[in-house]
Specification:
Blueprint lengths: L3 H13 L2 H18 L4 H13 L3 H18 L2 H17 L3 H18 L2 H22 L2 H20 L3 H18 L2 H18 L2 H13 L6 H13 L15 E8 L5 E6 L8 H18 L9 E4 L2 E7 L3 E7 L4 H17 L1 H8 L9 H8 L4
Antiparallel strand pairs: 1-2, 1-5, 3-4, 4-5
Length: 378
């Protein structure tokens, strides 16, 4: 396709922050695409992204919606992922942080389904920024915790894939997030770890930035200043394009329980060695989650995992339910599959879950859905 080189150059200039050159090449890509076949989604979506960079939001919306229609018509998950990423960027630029978070999460779900590490990281960084802005606007501690969770996922990927520069950058952002929350001691811990990594891997340029943040850590700043610096850091992030290294893990089983009551609604043990009553396990997980919240006054958010010897219980929290995935190892791929499964579970069984909340208990058999999602790792 003759427009593709111009499209790629537009994306590259956009990543560098050169709005004029990004728009110029996006316009050329769209012009060539219209001559060939006007129903290609990418040129319209990337034109929208370039227009957002130039502050022309109304025009960006028109191009984005056209590209979105073509993306859905094409049934391409890759183009739909592109659409939700740019939709989130446009919503964030417009100050609609709730919509931005929803769009980024939808894009993350699609990127996870495709397994593209570059796109997963790209959306996670954008999601972390949008959730922090959402927290400032709403005064919501929960949104700050979610932003921290996105950064934790980036850190997990960086460790698994052995990308030290990414880990350093994630620690920088975690430090800004903790300063935003007023936790200077924790912020210093992240910066100290970033400095150690800089010295270990001879990351001279990043070391200068980390040192600067350590020296200014105790300086009092308004929250909007911290968010502005967080946003700048995100825009300057270098997201590596690397071939994903597979981390082997086994799936032992899955339990889904209602968030409020801990009532088990679905369970499937895939390993015959698991013999415990799923209802008892669900109750135990709920009790442990409550205990961790009560353990410290400043503890916030939800429990994310329980590790015991050779089994890891990964917890993912949806709107109605909590999913406990029992695996041999806590990996980013296992968590990605878990998020995809829980999202589809809550969407496909929404009516049944509403009935559970009303006290009408009817078992849900989602074994086929679980097998379909989990088999993607093969």
């Amino acid at each position: 396709m003759t427009y593709v080189p111009y499209l790629n150059i537009a994306v590259g200039y956009g990543a560098l922050g050169d709005a004029d050159l990004a728009l110029r090449h996006a316009e050329k890509a769209l012009q060539l695409a219209r001559r060939a076949a006007g129903d290609q989604p990418a040129p319209y979506i990337e034109m929208a992204r370039a227009l957002v960079l130039n502050g022309r939001l109304d025009e960006a919306f028109d191009h984005l919606e056209t590209g979105g229609r073509f993306a859905i018509k094409s049934d391409s998950l890759r183009e739909q992922r592109r659409y939700y990423l740019v939709r989130g960027i446009l919503a964030r630029k417009s100050g609609n942080y709730d919509e931005a978070v929803r769009a980024f999460k939808r894009g993350l779900h699609l990127a996870g389904s495709l397994g593209n590490l570059y796109h997963i990281l790209q959306i996670l960084f954008n999601l972390a920024e949008a959730e922090l802005a959402q927290a400032q606007e709403a005064g919501s501690e929960g949104a700050v915790v979610q932003s921290s969770l996105a950064l934790s996922r980036i850190q997990q990927i960086a460790v698994e894939q052995d990308i030290p520069a990414l880990l350093i950058q994630a620690n920088l952002l975690r430090a800004e997030l903790e300063k935003f929350r007023g936790n200077l001691r924790i912020a210093r811990d992240h910066l100290t770890e970033a400095l150690r990594l800089c010295d270990k891997y001879h990351a001279t340029m990043l070391r200068a930035r980390v040192t600067e943040r350590i020296e200014a850590l105790d300086t009092q700043e308004p929250r909007h200043t911290i968010i502005g610096r967080f946003r700048t850091f995100v825009r300057q992030m270098v997201v590596p394009s690397v071939r994903r290294r597979r981390i082997i893990f086994e799936i032992y089983g899955c339990i889904i329980m209602m968030r409020d009551t801990g009532l088990e609604v679905f369970a499937d043990y895939l390993d015959p060695r698991l013999t415990s009553d799923p209802s008892l396990v669900a109750g135990l997980i709920t009790a442990v989650s409550s205990f961790t919240r009560e353990l410290k006054e400043d503890t916030s958010g939800s429990l994310q995992s329980i590790i015991h010897q050779d089994i890891a219980v990964l917890l993912e929290h949806g709107k109605f339910t909590t999913c406990a995935l029992l695996v041999s190892k806590d990996t980013s791929e296992a968590r990605m599959l878990q998020r995809v499964f829980l999202s589809r579970f809550e969407r496909e069984y929404a009516d049944r879950l509403q009935a559970y909340m009303s006290g009408m208990v009817n078992p849900i058999d989602a074994r086929n859905l679980l097998a379909e999602v989990m088999n993607r790792r093969h």
